[in-house]
């Protein structure tokens, strides 16, 4: 029996409901902001203040100003790209094939998968190491068998993924609220320890090079590109013809939330340390919380370090697994006649085994894999959507927007800086 009001057709009722929710913020929107925030904030946040702040005061300020447009405009462009498909159920792999042809589409989709998958391997290792260290150093327990600990942790995270979108969004909410609270508390706690920054007249050549090499750090510290395809499709299912408008609103609020909380944490940490201390922390290859705990002899900060790392790795793992799972399913469905359900189970099983094996082996080549992922993500997040604006009729209305050229420039800078760092 229909639930639509008497005298109003189902189609008209749906249109009216969609229009009434046009400007109204809902719990659905909040849940997706938390999910995208959790995807962006990985364990790298503990190294972000050192990586950004070590360049000095002026690069820190300039990159802070550019962080919001870089983050919001890039992810908005990728979401618009996914939503530009003529088909309502297209994921990222479908859209690239639709716009760039079968061969180019599959190549881009394959690169997209291999840009995300190494990050999952890194998080599998990182989560195992974080929990093991916490059990040994903070809880005074014996180190558990690595094969058992890593298997339980990876299986637990994948179980959340298998529970569906509602369980996933609920998990993000449970993880992200404590993460935001801890970041804010630590930021405010450090304020009495702030030192006046060294503000010198910048050398333009040195400043330009520092800014150039810092672009990838900002890009990937705030990146939630792995979840954008699933996010865009969820908005299409939920909002129909209002999907683009709502997706942009959610992405804007996500970017604002990231900039406010993460940059407050970054500035608070940087202003609490001298340039010499930051250099010392970088050379020691320890997180900013570990270094601060040692400097201030504060066991409270030392306890929070593993907790922040655990929450950040877990939330970011879930978001990246979402993207890897979707891209794997899309690729295999075009290469085989297997059912969608079987392909999904096969993909989840293979990724679980690969992440588990990597976590057990605890390899030392993860930075190299991250460097390989970096240029690919930059090309997919910045350059490919910009190219699509000049190729796809549905996107050509954005051709003359200033943001289009800004994102293309940032993408070129990010890719060139990453390649320069790898060559060096």
From TrEMBL:
<feature type="transmembrane region" description="Helical">
    <location>
        <begin position="211"/>
        <end position="234"/>
    </location>
</feature>
<feature type="transmembrane region" description="Helical">
    <location>
        <begin position="402"/>
        <end position="423"/>
    </location>
</feature>
<dbReference type="GO" id="GO:0005886">
    <property type="term" value="C:plasma membrane"/>
</dbReference>
<keyword id="KW-1133">Transmembrane helix</keyword>
<dbReference type="GO" id="GO:0003333">
    <property type="term" value="P:amino acid transmembrane transport"/>
</dbReference>
<keyword id="KW-1003">Cell membrane</keyword>
<feature type="transmembrane region" description="Helical">
    <location>
        <begin position="368"/>
        <end position="390"/>
    </location>
</feature>
<dbReference type="GO" id="GO:0004674">
    <property type="term" value="F:protein serine/threonine kinase activity"/>
</dbReference>
<feature type="transmembrane region" description="Helical">
    <location>
        <begin position="342"/>
        <end position="362"/>
    </location>
</feature>
<feature type="transmembrane region" description="Helical">
    <location>
        <begin position="255"/>
        <end position="273"/>
    </location>
</feature>
<keyword id="KW-0808">Transferase</keyword>
<feature type="transmembrane region" description="Helical">
    <location>
        <begin position="56"/>
        <end position="74"/>
    </location>
</feature>
<keyword id="KW-0812">Transmembrane</keyword>
<dbReference type="InterPro" id="IPR018227">
    <property type="entry name" value="Amino_acid_transport_2"/>
</dbReference>
<keyword id="KW-0472">Membrane</keyword>
<feature type="compositionally biased region" description="Polar residues">
    <location>
        <begin position="15"/>
        <end position="24"/>
    </location>
</feature>
<feature type="transmembrane region" description="Helical">
    <location>
        <begin position="300"/>
        <end position="322"/>
    </location>
</feature>
<feature type="transmembrane region" description="Helical">
    <location>
        <begin position="107"/>
        <end position="127"/>
    </location>
</feature>
<feature type="region of interest" description="Disordered">
    <location>
        <begin position="1"/>
        <end position="24"/>
    </location>
</feature>
<dbReference type="Pfam" id="PF03222">
    <property type="entry name" value="Trp_Tyr_perm"/>
</dbReference>
<feature type="transmembrane region" description="Helical">
    <location>
        <begin position="171"/>
        <end position="191"/>
    </location>
</feature>
<keyword id="KW-0997">Cell inner membrane</keyword>
<feature type="transmembrane region" description="Helical">
    <location>
        <begin position="147"/>
        <end position="164"/>
    </location>
</feature>
<protein>
    <submittedName>
        <fullName>Serine/threonine protein kinase</fullName>
    </submittedName>
</protein>
<keyword id="KW-0813">Transport</keyword>
<feature type="transmembrane region" description="Helical">
    <location>
        <begin position="32"/>
        <end position="50"/>
    </location>
</feature>
<keyword id="KW-0723">Serine/threonine-protein kinase</keyword>
<keyword id="KW-0418">Kinase</keyword>
């Amino acid at each position: 029996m229909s639930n639509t009001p008497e005298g109003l057709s189902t189609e008209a009722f749906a249109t009216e409901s969609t229009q009434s929710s046009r400007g109204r913020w809902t719990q659905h929107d909040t849940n997706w902001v938390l999910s995208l925030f959790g995807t962006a904030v990985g364990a790298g946040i503990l190294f972000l203040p050192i990586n950004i702040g070590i360049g000095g005061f002026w690069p820190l300020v300039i990159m802070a100003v550019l962080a919001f447009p870089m983050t919001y405009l890039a992810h908005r462009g990728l979401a618009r790209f996914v939503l530009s498909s003529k088909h309502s159920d297209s994921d990222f792999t479908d859209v690239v094939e639709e716009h760039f042809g079968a061969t180019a589409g599959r190549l881009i989709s394959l690169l997209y998968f291999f840009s995300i998958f190494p990050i999952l391997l890194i998080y599998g290792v990182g989560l195992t190491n974080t929990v093991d260290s916490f059990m040994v150093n903070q809880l005074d327990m014996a180190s558990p068998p690595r094969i058992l600990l890593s298997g339980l942790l990876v299986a637990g995270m994948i179980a959340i993924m298998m529970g569906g979108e509602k369980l996933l969004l609920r998990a993000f909410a449970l993880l992200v609220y404590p993460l935001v609270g801890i970041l804010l508390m630590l930021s405010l706690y450090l304020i009495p320890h702030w030192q006046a920054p060294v503000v010198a007249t910048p050398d333009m050549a040195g400043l330009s090079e520092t800014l150039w090499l810092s672009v990838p750090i900002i890009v990937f510290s705030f990146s939630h590109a792995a979840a954008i395809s699933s996010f865009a499709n969820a908005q299409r299912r939920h909002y129909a013809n209002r999907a683009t408008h709502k997706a942009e609103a959610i992405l804007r609020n996500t970017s604002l939330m990231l900039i406010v909380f993460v940059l407050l944490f970054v500035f608070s940490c940087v202003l609490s340390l001298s340039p010499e201390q930051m250099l010392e922390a970088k050379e020691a290859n320890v997180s900013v919380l570990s270094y601060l705990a040692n400097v201030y002899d504060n066991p409270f900060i030392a306890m929070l370090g593993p907790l922040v790392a655990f929450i950040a790795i877990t939330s970011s793992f879930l978001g990246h697994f979402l993207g890897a799972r979707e891209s794997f399913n899309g690729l295999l469905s075009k290469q085989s006649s297997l059912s969608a359900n079987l392909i999904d189970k096969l993909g989840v099983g293979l990724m679980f085994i690969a992440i588990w094996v990597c976590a057990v082996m605890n390899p030392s080549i993860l930075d190299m894999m991250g460097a390989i992922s970096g240029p690919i993500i930059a090309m997919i997040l910045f350059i490919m959507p910009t190219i699509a604006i000049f190729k796809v009729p549905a996107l050509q209305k954005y051709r003359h927007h200033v943001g289009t050229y800004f994102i293309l420039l940032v993408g070129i800078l990010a890719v060139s800086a990453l390649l320069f760092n790898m060559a060096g």
